[in-house]
Amino acid sequence: MAVVLSGRRGGTTHQSVELLGTLPAELRLIGGLAVMCRVGTPHRATVDLDAVARDLAGVHVDLAALALSATGGGQYTFEGDLELDVIDVSPDAVDALVAELGWPEVELTDLEMNVVAHTWAHDTATALDLLAVDEVDGARLASAPGRLVASAMGLVAMKATTVSLRASSKPEKRASDLYDLGRLIETGALAGDGLAGLPVPLRAPITDRLVHWFVDDRGRDRTFRDVRRFDDPALDLDDVAYRVERAAP
Fold first, then answer.
1. Running DSSP on this structure, what letter comes out for residue 107?
2. Measuring CA to CA, how many Å separate 246 from each of 25, 191, 242?
């Protein structure tokens, strides 16, 4: 599947796609650029690249050789001040991971659910052919064929389990996660199997959170206050609420 992203020549989108074309194939793209690919329409601007990998140590050497700096912890800086954050996921698949964590006898913590969500998103990523074009004349700027990108539901799972972990000192991160969630839902992430397609340990917790943030009056009011800073394109909370209610098991 091909995804065309428009931007300015030499701009962030151009540089990001150009960089992606050089990165190790083991990386799975997540974060703002992945959301942009999955919503299929204009989305909030994103600066940094985020990815997940299984066995980060195995790709670190290649990444460090390409980067201008590698400060450790999966963080790399490239030419043009582009930053890449790589999260190392569990070596085990989701079923083995949740069993190791003691589920269902032991309820998963917020952090453990986030670990499970990132692992699942890694394992369900699919390949996209990314193409950056000039927003003025449509000229081809850069390409990154066959890049593995988290699915729309993989992104929903990660973001829905990340919001509660955001520190109160970074409300802008919580707001951008909620906005991304709303845009993913608004553009069809919950169609088909939707929430029923999530790993079983995540279904009820993520459903409850989506209902609280987008359907229940009190939570929806706070979500509106959080996401109204992102007005291009504006989020239709009525539509998001309708889609969440329809998809709830």
1. P
2. 37, 9, 6
Structure tokens at 218: 């009190």
Using the 8-state DSSP alphabet, how is residue 202 labeled? H
Q: Are 69 and 77 in contact (CB under 8 A)?
A: yes
Edge-to-edge strand ranges of the sheet holding 28-30: 2-7, 126-134, 140-149, 28-30, 49-54, 82-89, 75-78, 69-72
Residue 238: Cβ-neighbour burial (10 angstroms; 0-12, 13-18, 19+): exposed
Q: What angle do CA 1, 145, 6 make, to 5 degrees?
A: 75
Count structural domains, the chain.
1
In whole angstroms, what is the distance from residue 103 CA to residue 116 CA?
11
d(Cα 148, Cα 128) in Å, to the nearest integer?
Answer: 6
Are 75 and 83 spatial neighbours (Cβ–Cβ below 8 Å)?
A: yes
Task: Give the mean pLDDT of 215-242.
Answer: 92
What's the average model confidence in pLDDT over 11-20? 92
Tokens for 37, please give them: 């690919």
Q: Residue 194: give the domain boundaries.
A: 2-247
pLDDT category at 46 given cuts 50, 70, 90 is low
Residue 165 CA to residue 161 CA, distance in Å, equals 7
